[in-house]
Amino acid sequence: MTELATMDFHPQPQAGQPKPWAFPAPERGTLDNGLTVLRCHRPGQQVVAVEVLLAAPLEAEPVGLDGVATIMARAFSEGTDKLSAEEFAAELERCGATLDAHADHPGVRLSLEVPVSRLPKALGLLADALRAPAFADSEVERLVRNRLDEIPHETANPARRAAKELSKELFPATSRMSRPRQGTEETVQKIDSAAVRAFFDKHVRPATSVAVIVGDLTGVDLDALLAETLGDWTGSSAEPRPVPPVAADDTGRVIIVDRPGAVQTQLLIGRVGADRHDRVWPAQVLGTYCLGGTLTSRLDRVLREEKGYTYGVRAFGQVLRAAPDGTGIAMLAISGSVDTPNTGPALDDLWKVLRTLAAEGLTDAERDIAVQNLVGVAPLKFETAAAVAGTLADQVEQYLPDDYQATLYQQLAATGTVEATAAAVSAFPVDRLVTVLVGDAAQIQEPVKALGIGEVTVVSAE
Amino acid sequence: MPMGHTATAEAGSGGLTATEHRLANGLRVVLSEDHLTPVAAVCLWYDVGSRHEVKGRTGLAHLFEHLMFQGSGQVKGNGHFELVQGAGGSLNGTTSFERTNYFETMPAHQLELALWLEADRMGSLLAALDDESMENQRDVVKNERRQRYDNVPYGTAFEKLTALAYPEGHPYHHTPIGSMADLDAATLEDARAFFRTYYAPNNAVISVVGDIDPRQTLAWIEKYFGSIPGHDGKPAPRDGSLPEVIGEQLREVVEEEVPARALMAAYRLPEDGTRAADAADVALTILGGGESSRLYNRLVRRDRTAVAAGFGVLRLAGAPSLGWLDVKTSGDVEVPVIESAVDAELARFAEEGPTDEEMERAQAQLEREWLDRLGTVAGRADELCRYAVLFGDPQLALTAVQRVLDITAEEVQEVAKSRLRPDNRAVLVYEPVAAGTTEEDEEAAK
């Protein structure tokens, strides 16, 4: 039964004339202390974004001290040679600024956002944090305790728990990538201020660091400002650290992390692929979008919009660590959650989607709509200074040229349906996927076994 | 003392302007030009939210929002998503207590498509709405509820606090996600009636912000929306007003499988749109907004009894706003230790008021938040609609930051004194239990 509408209908309008837009090209330079600086003027963006990359990767953490990079990153905002921890936090907030810092496989990253009128003051605080961090015993002790308190919260979160299990499964125990980025209870409790200081002294210096500054810089004498802030940071020179190769085991198998009583099963299905230096990357971006980039992609068209098993399932590729010679790796994964009783049927459908993709390929229409979206959203996606700064910093961190993003858009537009299909199929081969399910084993184990998508193992959530 | 340290030369409006128009069918239109980036944001606020729902049909406004993406007169299936994304745009919708919004951000040359799509569903949704999409989206929304609330630790805290803070029968007693039982009970006819009642041009505001030609944009809006008939069948929402203070401390202890003890509380605060609401925002920022706040310094830095501690504000126009305290304990620390420290800090703040430096810090933080919100065309479009729908004047969005900067220390102290009191809060305490034990089991064991 339908209802007649009473409005006047008009045909779907045609697009107007597109206006040119290009991903912004940064200006690159080096300060006297060796710090590389990328700057980018974005008119109208009153909140300036500053990203600082430190070449302190997780694999540089001493054996048994996983988490020391994280504690160091957090300790940057806990006082300097001039200010106590409380004073530093207060001064930063007085600028209306936020400063986040986190450690990941490629290194430590600090992200500052501040209204441009208070950039000088905030940049001074950031420089002090890097130049002369206090790393006071009691503050580091507090950060360690705080970190230990966080771990049970992460274990209780189905998505976080799944990510931890997948890393453990994919990588050999000897690889830093197999272990939680922010350390375990066992390793974190061994961290003290001496360990943080030692890690800092060994791995943090301006010559191996990069600062990215983006925003409306009208009237800002950035050279003078940099000279008296980040330019004042000193340190020895150092050779770039080689990126160790990593092997991954993507033998098809299923690990159920048991959470009795869970009303949903968290899925994380993944393996490892090449980093962005690989020629396949643009086609893989396109194919992955068609598979699971949005609500109208293949996975959600079935799992959400036809079956209602989920609020949404996404496929993605995310660089874990790049290498200058292209031997780095990315995580290729499908994630989402489905209701407990439908876990078996949902996985069955998910595998059917993958098999159909391999058998029949993508359609030209799917490819076209994906290209139009991925390329077309660029001006929206990079409206803010923070978005531009984040991408510029990613490029540097991944040893990519400063015009990588701009070039990627041209490559996406030039990628055909056949290439996109091939990339998606080889990114997600049905027999080479490690499936982690965080859910109620008693209810899902048998239906999952019956699917034949790999040997099923059950582990405890704790 | 000088108040209102401003980060921008024209902090009052950031140099932004907006014009207002009204179609004959009652649709209000707000336009704001900004040619910095070739993008345009379209935002539609319908003046309907979960507060309009009736007993036994909680969650209907949100479920209905999902149905708005299931096709309309001239748009098939998932066409709303497909067409916008295929044009290089992004889109979504959200439902809160007081409104439902739909938004598209488009490359500027695709603006007309977004207007056509929004008009199509405003005028002809029922031509496409059927049982199949109703059944499917009911399942999707139930899975949304599981994913965001039922399957995560503390996931239902907000729902529980809201139910405590607003009495049974109050329009804000339940949250927009609704209950599983009510989601199951909703019928296709409920959805149809909901559309006929609330989805009309005279119950909506549309804003378009960005790289636009205002005259052309207004002509398109007239063309696509102008023939949709308005109607006046909307019942007045139930009265949400309540006494300024609760008058007693309400309390619920939850024994659940959570990773740590937690103390949460909802304080009844002044309604949005008042100076007192802005003063409350400043007060809660000083007390619990960030890593230099009083509660963070006390509980996380000095006492080291909490892993996280902070205050948030839920601004509401049709009922008292809520100040939401959230503290997760460290290690084996017991809740009463936290609670007495919180009470001591709140009492001291009410007694002494904020320092000049605290005012400066809080206002600088709130100012940056406003710059962030108004710094994108989508954020600005949403704020223009918010002030148009809830307060009748979109221009208020452009001066909101100035109003926050005008708040004085005396006003902050006053609101702390009158509202941040133990007899004006609903408290939720979480006590962890071992895996496999639930509250029901405990009951049965007794």
Automatic annotation (TrEMBL), chain A:
Domain Peptidase M16 C-terminal: 191-374
Pfam families reported in the protein's UniProt record: Peptidase_M16, Peptidase_M16_C
Peptidase M16 N-terminal domain: residues covered: 40-171
MF annotations from Gene Ontology: metal ion binding
Disordered, as annotated region: 1-22
InterPro entries (alphabetical): Metalloenz_LuxS/M16 (IPR011249), MPP/UQCRC_Complex (IPR050361), Pept_M16_N (IPR011765), Peptidase_M16_C (IPR007863)
PANTHER family: METALLOPROTEASE, PROCESSING PROTEASE
Protein name: Peptidase M16
Source species of the chain: Streptomyces olivochromogenes
Lineage, highest ranks first: Bacteria, Bacillati, Actinomycetota, Actinomycetes, Kitasatosporales
From TrEMBL, chain B:
Family: Belongs to the peptidase M16 family.
UniProt KW keywords: Hydrolase, Metalloprotease, Protease, Zinc
Designated name of the protein: Zinc protease
Source species, domain of life: Bacteria
GO molecular function, one term: metal ion binding
Protease as UniProt keyword: yes
Pfam families on file: Peptidase_M16, Peptidase_M16_C
Biological processes per GO annotation: proteolysis
Peptidase M16 N-terminal domain ranges (all copies): 28-167
Record keyword Hydrolase present: yes
Domain Peptidase M16 C-terminal per the UniProt entry, residue ranges: 186-366
Xref: InterPro entries: Metalloenz_LuxS/M16, Pept_M16_N, Peptidase_M16, Peptidase_M16_C
Entry-linked PANTHER family: NARDILYSIN, NON-CATALYTIC MEMBER OF PEPTIDASE SUBFAMILY M16B-RELATED
Gene source species: Streptomyces olivochromogenes
